[in-house]
Amino acid sequence: MLFRMFFKEQLQRTPGRVLEFGCASGNNLMLFAAFGWDVTGIDVSSAAVADARHNLEGAANIIQCNLAEELPPLGERPYDVLLIPSVNYYLPRSAFTRLLVECRRLLKAGGLFYIRSRLPEDWRWGRGEPEGSGAFRLQCRETGEYGLLSVFYTADELWQLIVGHLGELRPVSVSGRASIIPRTGSWCTMPILSSGAGLLCEARSCEHGI
Predict the structure, then answer these.
(1) What own/partner pairs with CB < 8 Å and gap ≥ 24 does 56-62 have?
(2) N or C: which end of the chain has fewer CB within 10 A?
(3) For residue range 195-207, what is the model confidence (pLDDT) as tens digits?
(4) For residue 113, which of 177, 181, 21, 7 has the smallest C-alpha distance?
């Protein structure tokens, strides 16, 4: 999905700045770097950070940080693209809210916001000890996530969180997808694709800021 979004939005034509929360070994950022983007990635794993630095051959700012506990200093210069493809469901709800607040500050007017999340329909739902609303300390070993926190959001709940922290947006459903028009009169789009495995959102902020 991220690969498709990259070329659909023609991001290869105009390099900018991209920040990925939960970058793992840097596979997503490698696509941006190949087209001249200024890339920054954050991950909790020292091994993943080392792999990302190796894979990106030093052409990236890779930061080790536990987002469940804190946010690293990221300066004042905004980013054209923010990516949260695989980390928000490992964060306590309070930490995810803190991250969204930071995204509002960091996302450039007209920038692109990309997030994937787990829905309650995901097969991991309930497979662990409950830890608050929609959250479980996983006890399944199939995916190597034993002992990890997994937080599940309904599509409506995730939508409200994004709208609440990234701006006043109004959804208009079109053939199972949602075109989002901010109340300022500027435009943005947020296609929503849902399945049992998760929810994918691609959201463009309005031109005059979020």
Answers:
(1) 56/26, 56/29, 56/30, 59/33, 60/26, 60/29, 60/33, 62/23, 62/26
(2) N
(3) 344 555 555 444 4
(4) 21
- Cβ neighbours of residue 57 closer than 8 Å, sequence gap 6 or more: none
Strand order in the sheet with 135-138: 128-130, 135-138, 149-151
b vs e for 12-51, b when ≥16 Cβ sit within 10 Å of the residue's Cβ? eeeebbbbbbbbbbbbbbbbbbeeebbbbbbbbeeebbeb
3-state secondary structure of 194: strand
Place of tokens 């300066």: 75
| Structural domains of the chain sorted by starting position, each given as residue range(s) with its CATH number in brackets | 2-118+154-204 (3.40.50.150), 121-152 (no CATH)
